[in-house]
Amino acid sequence: MLPKKTKGGSPAAETPNPDNMDLIELFERLIAFNAGLLPDMLELKYEGMAESAFRFFRGTCHLFYEDLAHATPLPLSPLAWICGDLHIENFGSYRGDNKLVYFDLNDFDEALLAPASYELVRMVTSIFIAFDQVKIGPRKARRMAELYLRSYSATLELGKAKSIEPRTARGIVCDFLKKAEKSTYKDLLRKRTINDRKKRIFSLEDERHFKLDKKLQAELAAHIQEWISTSSDGPYNYKVKSVVFRLAGTGSIGLKRYLFLLKSTNTRQHYLMLDMKQCRAASPLPHVAVQQLQWESDAERVTSIQRRMQNVSAALLSTTSFRGESFLIQELQPVKDTIKFKLLKDDYRGMYQVIDDMGVLTASSQLRSGGLQGSSNIDDLIAFGRSTEWQAPLLEYALAYAEQVKRYYKRYVKEYKDGKLA
Known about the structure:
The protein is built from 13 helices and 15 strands. Helix 5 (116-133) runs antiparallel to helix 6. The chain is globular, with a radius of gyration of 22 Å. By secondary structure, the chain is α+β, with helices and mostly antiparallel strands. The chain folds into two domains: 15-182 and 337-417, no CATH class; 197-282 and 288-331.
């Protein structure tokens, strides 16, 4: 059982535990949060969440914050801009708008202003769950979690943000970035498109691509063509050639998401791909007692926080509104990828370096955005890095919550197979 939390002097509510809770409550929480998502895609999300405890954790960020809000408060920490859904597979490569390739945090759908410890405890929980999934023992998992927090604290204490690119990367991340640098649009086109009657279009053989009805295709193509011609963020002299529905991620499955193939009108056989993803309110928001900025839209929230947390912004990062809904636009890049954790399980030393880098990058993202619109200043972050008393309680909570997730997952799989969510 996880610890309790008191708020405003009122009796504490216990964190839900699937061993003694009404099972209907767990599924009511899942169904309530996912209401409004596309039903046919939601089935795929629920199917993906049944794959492993780690993927269930990725798909239930809202459960994490619901439970954290009813647990014993973590030690005080400075306010910081956080990505909100930090886990070991939310770090990856991308090409910045300066044309260089970086390794950094790469998912900001749940980003908001919150205690810095919220980012850390979710990340550490993911370490415990992922290590358990690949059969790495609890002692090694704890050492890695401690390493992550040490690297984070040491970077905060220095007070200077760092970045990782091919010239500064080490070990697995260095190899990963050098491989990413060699990826080309030709590779991406070969994977995702076909030539149909001498026209290049998206392949529907790709399991991530789904056909759209002609009316919606035409409306989307016209919308992006208008965005290209009017937005300062858009690429000049490109025409929309193909549109499909795109499936990606875990937590974001069920959102409206479209992929556009653009062809240059100036350069022969030159293409770009744009990803346009619906943005909803950050799932931690109802459970974080911190006043937030009044963003124009959730897409504006995502892009603004991403720009302040990353060392260099990703290329073609923008926003739009379609049919009254907020969407994030970004380039689908051949270099964009994440390090799959299960591929590292046989390289403990290499994994050690990766976790160390992740701690450095987490601290750097908070230093980079420190003192901006409500976040704590650099001096407060430095002081937090120098202190150590908060680390043990955070580790213990993360360890206990990892066990909680595994219990949730065990019950989820049983009832999912019985058709509970059909």
